[in-house]
Write a structure and sequence with these properties.
Elements lengths: L8 E4 L5 E6 L5 H10 L2 H6 L7 H9 L6 E7 L5 E9 L7 E8 L8 H15 L4 E7 L3 H9 L3 E11 L5 E10 L3
Parallel strand pairs: 5-6
Antiparallel strand pairs: 1-2, 2-3, 3-4, 4-5, 6-8, 7-8
């Protein structure tokens, strides 16, 4: 059984550091913008949302209270955002499904933060009332696949040359899902 992580929870990581996992709010615009600027170019190439674009950051922060969207961040002791996750409830015949996104700053990877944030965003998706969560990522992102596998996600499929990065290169994606109880 996966431990439930409540928003606003302080979490101790494997490397001795700690973070607070909480909901994104309207006061996070500058911190989210700074977070985006810490991401390496390779990360930005593959993200669905361009965290280096201030207009995208504004859109994300403005959507922090949307009914069909949950966004959470992990902050360090200085209040800096070091990770971001979102669950977006899909419309129409897929309204029982939420799509998950997750990104961790390179300096905070391999600390267990990705797993804690993944747990928290699955809980946030459950609070949306969905019964299924999906996540899609590049086939090459094996660490992310391992995080979600440990949370009970299974590969539903792989799409060849489905994602295109900002340089125009095509990549395969893996789609993973898990059913959650409401």
């Amino acid at each position: 059984m996966v431990q439930r992580i409540e928003a606003g929870s302080s979490v101790a990581l494997r490397d001795g550091r700690s973070v607070v996992i909480r909901a994104l709010d309207e006061h996070d615009r500058n911190a989210l913008d700074a977070f985006g600027n810490t991401l390496p170019r390779n990360d930005i190439l593959y993200l669905e949302d361009d965290f280096s674009n201030s207009e995208i950051i504004s859109r994300l922060v403005n959507a922090s209270y949307a009914e069909n969207w949950r966004q959470i961040v992990a902050t360090n002791d200085q209040g800096e955002i070091v990770a971001y996750a979102a669950a977006l409830q899909l419309p129409g015949w897929s309204e029982h499904v939420a799509d998950i996104r997750l990104i961790v700053s390179p300096a905070w990877r391999r600390s267990g933060l990705g797993r804690h944030l993944a747990q928290a965003i699955v809980e946030a998706a459950r609070d949306l009332g969905v019964s299924k969560v999906i996540v899609d990522m590049l086939a090459a992102q094996t660490a992310g696949q391992a995080i979600f596998s440990r949370l009970g996600f299974a590969v539903e499929g792989q799409l060849a040359r489905h994602a295109i990065d900002r340089d125009g290169n095509l990549h395969d994606i893996v789609i993973m899902s898990a059913f959650v109880r409401v």
